[in-house]
Amino acid sequence: MSNALIKIGKTAARGLAGFVATLRALGIWRFPAGLDTARGKYRASVFASLVAQRLAVRHRGKTADAENELMEDPFLRFHANYSLTHVELNTPCTTSLANDIASVLDLRDLKILSLGARNLNEIFQLQLNGARAANITAIDLYGNIPEIQCMDFHDLKFADQSFDLIFWAGSFAYAHTPELALSEAIRVCRKPGYFALDDTFIGDATKETYEALKPEYIAMQPELGKALSELPADRQTLTKSFPTLEAVEKLFVPYPSCAFVLRRTYSSPHYNIIAKFHA
Fold first, then answer.
1. What is the mean pLDDT of residues 18-28?
2. Which of 32, 36, 65, 161 lies in the 20 to 30 Å Cα band around 232?
């Protein structure tokens, strides 16, 4: 295929994604309850991500809702508004984790909790792998999209053992206390139940990139600078440091009922961990 045709195809896909996003935003049409498809799954996945981006980009650079009680905490306010500076982006974490968990489980009848969902891509990718929209609960620090509830994953407002699967793609490293966040997620996971975790490895290069871009983010979202000024120096960081898969795995040591089903690293670089918690 010529470069010109490829360019035309990409432009058409973006245009269609924008049209679908507009219909959905107006409440005229919604994605169906199930998107599970074997044929053309890769293309459907890319298209779903484009629609999620178009819906999310409408909120890019806006300030997180000041009336949201979570925004009283400067750390949470900082991270919510940081996310809103680049909310249209979709990392490879979501797609790879959804594909990996579907290789282990039939998602159709599972009750799923998506943590730090940010935009609809988590929900769409789970649907593409067989999950039903009605069975998916998604939370994040802000709720510009109706399907996403405002909640702090350090303090989940769900009863013990409420979900068959915890799906956590690309936001665990934003926890101010990773051990607390992990314990909350495990608390609401049924026993037996499954826990799927994916995030980017954090190293010096990642931190340096963030520090270099921080002035640009603050210029886009002034609330970032205000929230940073209210934080102690040791909490003025974007992410916690998990440089290796082994470092992440150590967090699961206090949970003897946990057995790893899948552990994988990707060249991006990011990792996927799928664990089963036994009764």
1. 77
2. 65
Answer with the residue of higher pLDDT: 263 or 90.
263
DSSP labels, 211-264: HHHHHHHHHH-THHHHHHHTS-GGG--S-----SHHHHHGGGTT-TTEEEEEEE
Q: How far apart are alpha carbons 124 and 203 in whole angstroms?
A: 30
Cα separation of 110 and 31, whole Å? 19
Render pLDDT for 194-219 as a digit per residue (tens, 0 to 9).
999 999 887 665 667 777 878 888 88
Are 181 and 162 within 8 A, CB to CB?
A: no
Band of residue 31 on the pLDDT scale cut at 50, 70, 90: low
Fill in the DSSP letter of residue 183: H
User: Domain boundaries in the chain?
Assistant: 31-204+237-277
Of 207, 204, 202, whose CA–CA distance to 268 is shortest?
202
- Other beta carbons within 10 angstroms of residue 57's beta carbon come to 16
Predicted TM-score (pTM) of this structure? 0.88
pLDDT for the residue 269: 80
| Packed helices 41-57 and 121-128: angle between N→C axes, nearest 10 degrees | 160
Nearest residue to 132 (alpha-carbon basis) of 168, 169, 165, 100: 165
Do 43 and 12 form a contact (C-beta atoms < 8 A)?
no
Report how far residue 17's alpha carbon sits from residue 5's, in angstroms, rounded to the nearest whole number.
Answer: 18
In CATH, the architecture of 31-204+237-277 is 3-Layer(aba) Sandwich (3.40)
